[in-house]
Structure formats: C-alpha cells, structure tokens
Amino acid sequence: MGGLIFITILFWNSLLFLSPSSSHPLCTDSRAPFNATTPLAFCPYNGTVCCDSAADLLLQKQYKAMNISDLGCASLLKWVLCSRCDQFSAELFRINSVPRPVPVLCNSTVSADYSQSNQARDNFCGKVWDTCQNVSIMSSPFAASLQGQTGQPVNSNFSKLTDFWQSKADFCLAFGGASLDDAVCFDGGPVTLNKTDAPSPPSGMCLEKIGNGSYLSMAPHPDGSGRAFFSNQPGKIWLATIPKEGSGGTLVLDESNPFLDLTDEVHFDTEFGMMSIAFHPNFTQNGRFFASFNCDKVKWPRCVGRCSCNSDVNCDPSKLPADNGAQPCQYQSVVAEFTVNGNSAKPLEVRRIFTMGLPFTSHHGGQILFGPADGYLYFMMGDGGGTGDPFNFAQNKKSLLGKIIRLDVDNIPSAAEITQLGLWGNYSIPQDNPYVEDTQLQPEIWALGLRNPWRCSFDSERSSYFMCADVGQDLYEEVDLITKDGNYGWRAYEGPYPYSPAQSLGGNNISVNSSTLIFPVMGYNHTDVNKNEGSASITGGYFYRSTTDPCMYGSYLFADLYATAIWAGIETPENSGNFTATQISFSCAHDSPIPCSIVPGNSLPALGYIFSFGEDNNKDIFLLTSSGVYRVVRPSRCNYACAKENATAFVTPSPGSSSSSQTSRFGPSNISVILCSSLLLLLLSFFLV
Ligand SMILES: *[C@@H]1O[C@H](CO)[C@@H](O)[C@H](O)[C@H]1NC(C)=O
Ligand SMILES: *[C@@H]1O[C@H](CO)[C@@H](O)[C@H](O)[C@H]1NC(C)=O
Ligand SMILES: *[C@@H]1O[C@H](CO)[C@@H](O)[C@H](O)[C@H]1NC(C)=O
Ligand SMILES: *[C@@H]1O[C@H](CO)[C@@H](O)[C@H](O)[C@H]1NC(C)=O
Ligand SMILES: *[C@@H]1O[C@H](CO)[C@@H](O)[C@H](O)[C@H]1NC(C)=O
Ligand SMILES: *[C@@H]1O[C@H](CO)[C@@H](O)[C@H](O)[C@H]1NC(C)=O
Ligand SMILES: *[C@@H]1O[C@H](CO)[C@@H](O)[C@H](O)[C@H]1NC(C)=O
Ligand SMILES: *[C@@H]1O[C@H](CO)[C@@H](O)[C@H](O)[C@H]1NC(C)=O
Ligand SMILES: *[C@@H]1O[C@H](CO)[C@@H](O)[C@H](O)[C@H]1NC(C)=O
Ligand SMILES: *[C@@H]1O[C@H](CO)[C@@H](O)[C@H](O)[C@H]1NC(C)=O
Ligand SMILES: *[C@@H]1O[C@H](CO)[C@@H](O)[C@H](O)[C@H]1NC(C)=O
Ligand SMILES: *[C@@H]1O[C@H](CO)[C@@H](O)[C@H](O)[C@H]1NC(C)=O
C-alpha cells in the first residue's frame, strides 16, 4: 500500500531541486560582512561591508589599470567594481550559481524591490551601456566574462563594449537581471531592501500528537516518501510511516523491529547517547547513512580516539578535573558510517568517520547534517563541558570543541594521508573550508565560538540560511546565523553579554576582538522563561516551509527545552537577516489522533521536554519531545485565526490533505510514473527495510 505513494512521491520529489537562492548580508567568499572600523579609502561603502582596506586597495589598483579616459564611464565602473564591498555581494555576484566577474546590473524592468528614492537608478544596465559603449577600457571586466573568468582578465588589451555586444539589448541580456524571486541586483549604489512588507507572526501553533515514543532525531527518508527515520537517545533507529494530516492515523512504527540497534555500543546518560542520524543525499542509490553517538572506551574496544584535551591546546589530560568519576576522555564523540545492504538483515558499520575523546560529561552537541547546497557533512560540537568553558576551547582555533565542523565524506583519503594530515578519522577537508585563508584554524572548522549547538537546520528554500541554536550559560539562549569562519563569541560573550569565566584551567591565552564577533540574530533571557524556578535551554528548529499552516510560512521556529515557550522568528525586511522573535501560543488539536495531556493548572499541552524539531518530505514540522511526537497542523484545528488558511486552494480539510497538495501541483505527471512503478518497486525494495 505504501509502495504506490512512495513511487509517486519519489518522482515528485525530483522536481523539488530548486535553485538555491540566498540573500541575507553575505560576502562573495561566503563570510559574513563586518563593520568597517575606518571608512574605506577608495570604495564609497561604509558601515557593514565586505571589504577590508586591503581589498579596497586591490579594487583601486584594478580601477586605475582600466585607464578609463571618459569621466562619466569611469565613475560608473568604479561603482561596479566596488559593489564587491556591498554587504549583499554574494547575492549581487550570484555565488550560488555561476559566479560572475561583474554584479547583476539592474535592468529596465526592475523596480519592485527598490525604494522609490532610487527611481533614478533604474535601468542601471542601460545607463552603463549608454555611457560606456564607445569607451576604451583596459582589462575590461566585461570582456573577462567572455573568457569565463570570475576575476581579472588575463589579457591586458583595451576593449570597448561595442567590440563584443551589438546593442544595449545584447549587453543587458548578458549582464542585466531583474530583482525577482528574492534576488537583488546592482543599481549603482548600496543594495537596499523593500521595507514595506512586514509579515506578522502566526497567531498560534496547532499541534496534533501522532506518537508516544521519545526520540532525539528525525530524518525524512531521502526517497521522498511519506516516511522518516527516528532515533532515540539509548541508540535505536526506526523507520516509520507518517500518517497524512487529518487521517486520524498515528505514526506506524514497529517498536520491536528497529532499523538499527546500537544500544550495545552507545553510552547512554543524561547528555550522552545517540545524538543524531543523517542520510547521504544519494542514499537511495548508495545506501550510505551516518550516526553520531557517544561511547565509553572502558566498555567498547572500538571506542578509541584522540583526546580533545592534549598538548596542541595546552590541556594536560592527567590534570583534568574529575567529572562524574570518569577518566579523561573515557567518553568519546563518534560519527560512524553504515550501509543498507540488500543481502544483510541489518546495516553494518562500514567506516568510522570521526572519533574524539571528550574532556567532560556535557556540551558535545552531536548533530550531523548534510548541507543541501554543498553536500558536505556538518557536525556540531559543543565546548566539551565544564562550567564556562574553563580551557577556552571554543575560541581556540586548534581545538574542534565549540565548533561547527565541515567534512567531505565522499572523498576518503588513504590511511597514510589521514595520519600525515592529523585528521580525526576517515574524511577529507573541503577545499573551501576557511583554514586555507586562516592558517591558525584546524582544517575541519567551518565556524567557532559556540557553547553547545543544540539543533541546527538549513532553510529548505534558502540554503545560505544555516541557523543554529546555541545553549547559554547563565543569562541568555541564542540563535545564530552560521557563516563561514564566523566567530559566535563564546566564552568571551554569552549572547550579547560579555562573559567572565568562573574558572580558567589552562588552554591558550586567546584575546577576542569584539568587532570580529557575530552576535545572535535572536534569543531570549533566562528570566523570560524560568519564572517558575525552572532552567532554560534552547532547542533550535526550522524555517517553516510547509503549506499546512500558511500563516506560519517563513517563520523560524524554536523552543525552550522545558516546553514553557515556543517562538516564531520573523525576518523584516525579508532577506535582511534582521529577525524579531515573538513568543507564540501553542495548543493541541481537539481531534488529535492521540489525545494530548494538559499541564495541571493551565491549558498548555503537556509536551514534557522539547528535545528536537523534525521536518519531513512535505516540509511539515514535528516536535520530538519526552512525551511523544507532535506535528504542526492547520491552525483552524485549534481555532487559531489564519485568513490565509482557507484561501489556500490545496489545503483541503479532508483526510489526505498533505498529499493532495502534491497531486494538485504536479498531478498529471504521476500517471506515467505509476505505470512503471512495479518494476522500480522490485529494485528499490532492497532499501525498504
Ligand atoms: C555612509 O555614507 C553615506 C553616503 O554615501 C552617508 O550618508 C552616511 O552618513 C555614511 N555613514 C557613515 C556611518 O559614515
Ligand atoms: C592610459 O591612457 C592614456 C591616454 O588616455 C595613455 O597615454 C596611457 O599610456 C595609458 N596607460 C596605459 C598603461 O595604457
Ligand atoms: C515593496 O513590496 C510591496 C509588497 O510586495 C509592494 O507592494 C511595494 O510596491 C514595494 N515597494 C517598493 C518601493 O518597491
Ligand atoms: C558611440 O558610437 C556610435 C557609433 O559610432 C555612435 O552612434 C554613438 O552616438 C556613440 N555613443 C556615444 C555615447 O558616444
Ligand atoms: C590582444 O588582442 C589580440 C586580438 O584580439 C590578441 O591576439 C592578443 O593575444 C591580445 N593580447 C593579450 C595580451 O591578451
Ligand atoms: C534587459 O532588458 C533588455 C531590454 O532593455 C532585454 O532585452 C533583456 O532581456 C533584459 N535582460 C534581463 C536579464 O532581464
Ligand atoms: C499512546 O498512549 C496512549 C495512552 O497511554 C494510548 O491510549 C495509545 O493507544 C497510545 N498510542 C499509540 C499509537 O501508541
Ligand atoms: C549522486 O548521484 C548522482 C546521480 O547518480 C551523481 O551524479 C552524483 O555524483 C552523486 N553524488 C555523490 C556525492 O555521490
Ligand atoms: C556593527 O554595526 C551595527 C550597526 O551600526 C551594530 O548594531 C553592531 O553591533 C555592530 N557590530 C559590531 C560587532 O560592532
Ligand atoms: C534581557 O534582559 C535585559 C536586561 O534585563 C534587557 O535589557 C533585554 O532587553 C532582555 N532581552 C530580551 C531578548 O528579552
Ligand atoms: C528589524 O526589524 C525590526 C522589527 O520588525 C524593525 O523595526 C527594524 O526596522 C528592522 N531593522 C532594519 C535594519 O531593517
Ligand atoms: C477554515 O475552514 C475550516 C473548515 O472548513 C473552518 O473550520 C475554519 O473556521 C476556517 N477558518 C477560517 C479562518 O475561516
């Protein structure tokens, strides 16, 4: 029965590979822009920029080398070159598609996303043509584009635009672009976003309970079917079928028949266990998947890795303070690769990707995620524990603690290379990891300065929005927008507040310049949630991208572990990276398949601890809590007002609404797929455990 649905959705899913778009302020090197401490000498950009004085000087040299005699044209091309310093330069140069030597020049049709005061800059592309077409330019960046280059042209000849393009239309076909689909274009000055459309937060989050089990991690089946893998902290993974919204069904999962059982290898305790699972983007072809867990080297011989407390980071394991009676680095963080083998009953570990000994018993993150745009494996690692990061590991670029780690698991080097490079397992280093530019960094590091990243996600519609919640110490829980080489401040800062460690046990003496730090985009004070003597601990969620609750679409959802509060983060203007978090009410649908318990004394559903969020192939959002699995459903089921809900054609208040949304969009194509489905079913059944 599941087979037909599975095949049709498999096809549908292949249509979902949208070209990634991005827009929050980001530089062409994928880094976050920074505040210019002194105004740039050459380029007329100030405030938050992508150029330091060295980059500014290079642009000045490039400008002089063009030797443009016409003053009008020279001034326009100065702006074109200097647009690399714009805080949106990644978007102007479209680094997510084919990178360009010149930014996308706003074309005549463009005005929608630009403020009225910039009306005069409309058709900047046409203006460049009109002003520069007959002007000789040496090493013209426009000519460079013909050579398929992104930097300066190799030849140093003079050329005119008319040498290569017949007309304004030709020229603007090559360089012009509209400000469509959230993308920006260059109109002769700093990018400004349309500030008029301010979305409002949803009036509430309506939940239905579909399972009783307690899980830490959920991963949709990469085949696009209505199924997902769920893992629990003790170390089991199950494959479950998710009921359609409104069907009244619950999660279909055979408790006694896990997909994988690692409970003999996993060390399970308060902050230890199976932390995360991730499926290779090509899982349906290669059967590769990954589990991140903790192990105890005293109990399992294969639990062997280098200790993260070592001489490189001025940490002496023999002097590590005792923590819950454990030996130094007795517990390890492991990422292991498994394969679904058609012939074997259960998956087997085929390769150890990563193993690292932990200094204390807390703060070791553990989530693993494949980047949707780059296919690399991201591994979130906390500061290793001990109050206030006593060894200052998170700021230490020689330590992998307190970091976002980025690994290439598709190119495994030889054992000799792994030893030579000093890697922590079987992976290679992506060539654009930031250590190439920052030689102080360990090559695995993508971002630093985190305390205990507890649940990160990529926006499924904008892959550059990589959000991580980072658990705070005494005052503040934060959400960070992770960028390459970004330093998120811990332990010099806890959220926006300077932090003074209670103890310093050693480590490297690292000074932190606050101007190089990236502060949270959202967060909350402990005093906002612990009014009843409880604690606070953030659990990061997802950008809501399902059509099920149209009023929640585009909000970034996150919660406090203690389930006293859930927030929706709204970005205004859209694509600005400027977020405002609003606490939203939540309740349980009266017709929930499994009735929700209610917290005695108030009307909140008794969720227990909110461990994680999950997202399925329909982009529906789930809460994984100590009391069960909850799905975000249509707001009307909880009597939350949402005018958009009934106006949305493909959300029908009948059983199977979520799948009817697919067929109404892509319906006719399904028929031919059904015809060959039985053959595919035979082939693919090897992977259907
Ligand atoms: C930045 O430059 C603009 C003009 O280009 C100017 O109006 C503004 O005051 C400058 N801002 C700062 C902070 O220098
Ligand atoms: C720049 O142009 C001027 C004339 O406009 C010419 O005299 C000079 O030689 C040129 N410089 C180079 C490096 O070609
Ligand atoms: C900004 O966006 C709104 C809504 O999309 C649109 O109606 C308005 O015309 C835009 N404003 C400008 C100045 O382009
Ligand atoms: C450029 O040259 C063309 C052809 O000689 C001429 O028609 C046009 O007016 C010139 N444009 C400018 C801006 O000088
Ligand atoms: C200059 O242009 C000519 C003709 O297009 C070409 O043959 C020559 O190689 C170019 N010079 C350089 C240095 O690229
Ligand atoms: C830019 O405008 C010209 C007409 O002025 C048009 O021919 C061209 O297709 C447009 N280019 C883009 C990328 O929109
Ligand atoms: C979940 O637990 C409730 C209460 O114990 C029970 O009535 C229900 O049958 C369970 N549902 C499932 C799907 O396990
Ligand atoms: C995934 O599969 C596609 C198509 O089979 C292939 O082109 C691609 O190289 C594969 N990618 C990886 C990372 O294995
Ligand atoms: C950068 O400038 C913005 C706006 O002036 C300010 O809000 C922010 O705190 C500054 N960041 C740093 C790291 O100084
Ligand atoms: C946190 O508390 C501080 C001071 O008590 C206050 O200034 C700040 O606005 C609060 N921040 C949030 C996000 O509530
Ligand atoms: C950020 O969002 C807030 C709240 O919506 C808004 O008032 C403010 O103007 C925005 N800031 C910027 C720089 O757009
Ligand atoms: C939407 O439709 C449902 C079912 O027909 C109804 O219960 C609900 O009140 C409607 N919601 C709104 C906002 O009109």
TrEMBL record:
<keyword id="KW-0560">Oxidoreductase</keyword>
<keyword id="KW-0325">Glycoprotein</keyword>
<keyword id="KW-1133">Transmembrane helix</keyword>
<feature type="domain" description="Glucose/Sorbosone dehydrogenase">
    <location>
        <begin position="217"/>
        <end position="561"/>
    </location>
</feature>
<protein>
    <recommendedName>
        <fullName>Glucose/Sorbosone dehydrogenase domain-containing protein</fullName>
    </recommendedName>
</protein>
<feature type="signal peptide">
    <location>
        <begin position="1"/>
        <end position="23"/>
    </location>
</feature>
<dbReference type="InterPro" id="IPR011042">
    <property type="entry name" value="6-blade_b-propeller_TolB-like"/>
</dbReference>
<dbReference type="InterPro" id="IPR011041">
    <property type="entry name" value="Quinoprot_gluc/sorb_DH_b-prop"/>
</dbReference>
<dbReference type="GO" id="GO:0016491">
    <property type="term" value="F:oxidoreductase activity"/>
</dbReference>
<keyword id="KW-0449">Lipoprotein</keyword>
<feature type="transmembrane region" description="Helical">
    <location>
        <begin position="671"/>
        <end position="688"/>
    </location>
</feature>
<keyword id="KW-0732">Signal</keyword>
<dbReference type="InterPro" id="IPR012938">
    <property type="entry name" value="Glc/Sorbosone_DH"/>
</dbReference>
<dbReference type="Pfam" id="PF07995">
    <property type="entry name" value="GSDH"/>
</dbReference>
<keyword id="KW-0812">Transmembrane</keyword>
<keyword id="KW-0634">PQQ</keyword>
<dbReference type="GO" id="GO:0005886">
    <property type="term" value="C:plasma membrane"/>
</dbReference>
<keyword id="KW-0472">Membrane</keyword>
<keyword id="KW-1003">Cell membrane</keyword>
<comment type="similarity">
    <text>Belongs to the PQQ oxidoreductase GdhB family.</text>
</comment>
